[in-house]
Write a structure and sequence with these properties.
Length: about 240
Amino acid sequence: MSLDLLEADFSEPGRIRAVSTTRGSPGDDDELDLGRSKAPKRLAENRARLFSAIGKTRVQWLRQVHGTRVHHAGRVGDAVEADAVWTDVPGVAIAVTTADCIPVVVAGSACSVVAVIHCGWRGTVDGIIEATLGELPVEASELKAWLGPGICGRCYEVGTDVYERAAIWANAPRTFTATGAEGKWLFDLPAYVAGRLGSAGVPEVYQSNACTFHEDRFFSYRRDGATGRMAMIAWIDLR
Ligand SMILES: [Zn+2]
């Protein structure tokens, strides 16, 4: 069965492959929910649909906690508590799941390494991007990144708490727009994530420009409350 997938749009991706899933068939029993809240049998079925579409039998999943822990996957094991994962082993597939947070794939120019990062506002502010780049065995200047579907800057209203904590990064004010309501801001999380990647030295940052909140094609926690999760999966091709 073919699935509705977004392929990471790097220039010259080489052997690095990365795809983001979508909601599948909105509102249908056929929705491709890859979140852990799903009944185990249904989750196993949805993972099997994904595996068959991407030609994999196993993926390294994470238990994400909006933290800054990074996992190195030398092989695929049980789910690990972390918010980013990287591998330098061809064929090992790694994944993060999201519904509004930004999934980011980072790839080395020589295709020797790939990472995926769960970038919600909290983990990003606290340094999950920098923590990941710090673990990779290549310089940031040799990396490129692609931002998968997440909530866009017109849809994401936040309070002063987020505005103040995000200010740890000097360019943060450019990513907030006052709404006119007291203490309310529109936060451009994709721009914030891209900016933090750039400040950390990543020269090429590409965007899917897909919004989970205003496009029905995706799950959105903000829009729907209890909802499913999409996955971003990446690996180094064996060829
Ligand atoms: Zn939007």
